[in-house]
Amino acid sequence: MVVCGDDALARRLAAELRSVYGEQVTLVVPPAGQAPGPPVVGRARASALFGRVSAAVQRATGSTGNNGNGGSNGNGEPATPAPQLEAAELTDEVLAEAGVERAAALALVHDDDETNIRAALAARRLNPRLRLVIRLYNRRLGQYLEDVLDQAAALASPGVDPHEFDASTTILSDADTAAPALTAAAVAGSSKVVQAHGVLLRAAERSAAVPGDSALCTLALLSDAATDTQGPGTALPQLLPDEASVTAADGRGRIVLETVSYSGPAQPVSRSRPLGSLLSPRLRWSFVGIVLGVVALAVTAVFTTGEHPLRAVYLTLLDLFSINEPAIGESTFRQVLQLLSGFVGLLLLPVLLAAVLEALGTFRSGVVTRRPPRGLSGHVVLLGLGKIGTRVLARLRELDIPVVCVESDPDARGMALARRLRVPVVLGDVTEEGVLEAAKIHRAHSLLALTSVDTTNLEAALYARSVDPELRVVMRLYDDDFATAVYRTLRAAHPRALTRSRSVSYLAAPAFAGAMMGRQILGAVPVERKVLLIAAVTVAGLAPLEGRTLAETFRPGAWRVLALDTSTGGPEQRPDGRERSEGVVPHPSGDPSPGLVWDLHPGYVLRPEDRVVLAATGRGLAELLGRRPRTGAPVPGGGG
């Protein structure tokens, strides 16, 4: 596989492919003098500030900063780097030297969209069967480019069975791929997630079976130290065990699959504004008083002048709006009533003007920004509405999680989305006093610091911890070494609180690596020294699945069907004559997604049109898809 890039994402992607999937990788990067460096705004001040804080914490706690996690925050690189090729531009000659003509997949992760597009067109011409993964932020352009490159691959290989090779084109954005992990870290405290059809899944480790557990299934049984006769660390975990093995392994640690959900209060989102919310109570009472005055004048006119009630109301309104003839030569009662009606009309004019101004102000405040409501608690405070923050905000609102945003730029990229979603926004510099208090940080569930400046994120996290020492904090930090130092020290200072410091490249690399393995790969779940793959496949053409029941398709240690995607079609007839929907049992806690059904009847028969989400080992997935692993290459999760 070939990875081309000019920032940390390229190196991390190469490390992910080598360490998790066991792939052979060639890395193409610009020369050392031309590679863009990390942003320097506030970096020196942040390092100096945190150096002093870290030293103080270590002196107070007597800790060296090691959190018992190997001194790592998950950003570690493998010991042996991938073969590297330096090139200023991705020309045809450079791509050929990198081995694109013989490669299985190519990742183009330059920060410049035009560079990635040029290289993708050249690579598709050199190798029509190449699997392409391209980094683009523009979604619409990405869809068009994906269709064009897939069509070019199909036309370049006429008469070839598409199942024999995967020449797919996948367009990804680092913001889109990092957003689910950041969302899960804020909600559930874990950034190790897999996204399947809009549902966030995470693999959680359990020490033993829990009665009433809401887990979807058991993915693996961890190695049992009691039966490890060759020394500690030599026993292997049991991947995709059957029910008998799970039942027999009472008290043994296990990895279960569960959905990431939010159980706190939902944020009310007002899509329409009722008439009563447009006017203040004082204005409403003023209108009531004017209406009562008109009714009193009309009733008085009926009794004093003998007019018909409807005519009395009509004349009163004419006098009210000063469009009636003067009552000269009429009775004294009629003249007095006309004067009183004119006076009420004078009172009506300022009330109408105030109502118009107040209604316009209400609409304007609804279009611009909302302030955090009183009594708000259990929410997520999101700092920064840039490229990353905008995507995270969308994901949080999809999960119906209450959010309060803090942004210093009123023209930031995500301000339009916040206004459209009716999300409260506090405009101001987060480093200024009173800004986080306005966001109700003292009653928040977690803090997501996603600005592009490390100093700002660090200062906000330290201040939030001073307000609430047990607040869940997730920070976006550019430099991996700096992120590790922040993670260690904050864990040492606040051992009971959850702290996550992540770079976007660290969070985005697993999604890019999964796409390079094939469009059907959704993600990977590490299980000790093995890896399970989560994939989405169509049943058509797969003999182990097509025409078989779910119980028959399950192969322990190889693959297991997890869910059925029902969004591709309506109910159909099963072989026994019943509708397919009768074979689907709703999930006890409700279907996590309208398009996925998780708790399937064991007798459900898979049809060629079905699309399923399954967990498989590397060898198991290769066998299921009818592919052979490369000779000499380790297969993740398959014993290599």
- Specify the structural class: alpha/beta
- Strand tally: 22
Rg (CA only): 32 Å
Largest sheet: 6 strands, parallel
Strand order of the largest sheet: 3-2-1-4-5-6
For the terminal residues, how far apart are their CA atoms?
18 Å
Query: Helix tally?
Result: 19
Low-pLDDT stretches? 38-50, 52-79, 225-234, 268-274, 569-593, 628-640
- Average of pLDDT: 76
Q: Strand-residue fraction?
A: 15-25%
Shape: elongated
Helix content: 25-40%
What features would you describe in this structure?
- By secondary structure, the chain is an alpha/beta fold.
- 38% of the residues lie in helices and 16% in strands.
- The chain is built from 19 helices and 22 strands.
- The strands form four sheets. Strands 3-2-1-4-5-6 form a six-stranded parallel sheet, sandwiched between helices.
- α5 links the parallel β5 and β6.
- α9 crosses α10.
- The longest helix is centred in the middle third of the chain and has 36 residues.
- The chain is elongated.
- The two termini are 18 Å apart.
- The C terminus is likely disordered.
